[in-house]
Amino acid sequence: MHVHIRRAPPVTRKGVYELYWTFASRRQRMFERRLAADAFPWSDDAILNTFKFCNVFRAADRVSQYLIRDVAYAPDAGSYADRVFQIVAFRTFSNIRTWGGIRTALGRPPTIDDLRTGRFEKALDRVKAVNSGLYTGAFILCANKAYGFDEKHRNHVALFQHMFIRGGLAETIRGANSLESVVRALQGFPLMGPFMAYQTAVDLNYSDLLGFDENDYTQAGPGALRGLRKAFTSLGDYSPSDAILWMVERQQEEFHRLSLPFGGLFGRKLHAIDCQGLFCELDKYCREAVPELASNRSRIKARFAASPDPIALFFPPKWNLGLPSNASVPAAARHPASKQFAFDLDEAFPDDGNNRAEARITRHRRSSGGSADERVVTPHFI
Questions:
Q1: Strands (DSSP E) along the chain, which ranges?
Q2: C-beta neighbour count of 75 within 10 angstroms
Q3: Is the per-residue pLDDT at 267 higher than 60?
Q4: Which of 31, 207, 332, 374 has the smallest CB count inside 10 Å?
């Protein structure tokens, strides 16, 4: 006798769930319009034109692009173990200037031998003195003094020594049989929380060192958990990770149902890491579009500041994307805002915030003589 257990699926919050797919469609279209060298604004959506949002595809963001091109596929990266160390170290700092400074100080990418001799730590000291810092705010890093040092970067140097000199992490990763096992291996070390371990595992999987399916495993970060609570009134019998993978499976159906254009990333569909990130961006977007939804974060901190630097796109060759040979994102320029969309609500939320009134889109033209808060500021993304 076969027993079939039917799992209760997530229960969507009407209007906000649809915003998830609407955001993905509009934000990807902005990326495509900038790639085509269209003038700013690249959207009719006032919120997207005013505030900073990550790309729909994680691999297309500027820091990930640098990691893929200049770290994971750097021609002078060295041995398998050295390359694992470089990817883990880069993601820890998530700072292009820091990595460039390390390369300048050493004359090449850092190696595990540099960890042994102290050259890597000295290079970090030099970069910190010049740049007045080493880290970005991209990830919330464990701040405890796990290895007994007062300075964060010295604890991370000790962590890398633990991982790659005493802990044999590179060989463990070489022998891994799944993306989840890579996450578990990373998470087994101090200062590596579940989400940071997952993000680092995805970076390693971008390289040719690993070849796992990104949809085999996912981990919701703090921002994604907030977005999940906004998109759904209940997850049913699903875990947050299950709900993210549920979105991966439903993407084509939902874009079609909502008549939203979405061609993916040069033919590549959304993967778990992208759908996870979209929940984080939905949380931010709803702070402006649906402020009635209760959240422990009430506003978007980062405004749009145009990047002056062009970037030549580079994605893992193993993806076989249909990328034009001359594809590059041009430098952004400031332009006045044009006609835009704004969200209005048909009804207010009840006190418990569980029954979302359906959002409706209305067109309006912002006055060029509006207040400073009404003027659109150019964002920083590619």
A1: 11-12, 232-234, 311-312, 328-329, 340-345, 359-364
A2: 6
A3: yes
A4: 374
CA distance 22 to 15: 10
Predicted confidence (pLDDT) per residue in 104-144, tens digit? 999 999 999 999 999 999 999 999 999 999 998 665 566 67
pLDDT for residue 360 is more than 80? no
Q: Which residues contact 150 (CB under 8 A, 6 or more apart)?
A: none
Interior CA angle at 39 toward 34 and 45, to 5°?
75
Phi, psi (deg, nearest 5) at residue 288 = -100, -45
pLDDT of residue 352: 40
Q: Quick check: 340 pLDDT over 50? A: no
**41 upstream amide cis, omega within 30 of 0:** yes
**H/E element, 250:** helix 240-257
- The pair of three-digit structure tokens given for residue 73, joined into one six-digit string: 């596929």
pLDDT at 11 over 70: yes
Neighbouring C-beta atoms of residue 136, cutoff 10 Å: 13
Residue 243 · residue 10 · CB < 8 Å: yes
Residue with tokens 């962590």: 159
**What length does the chain have?**
382
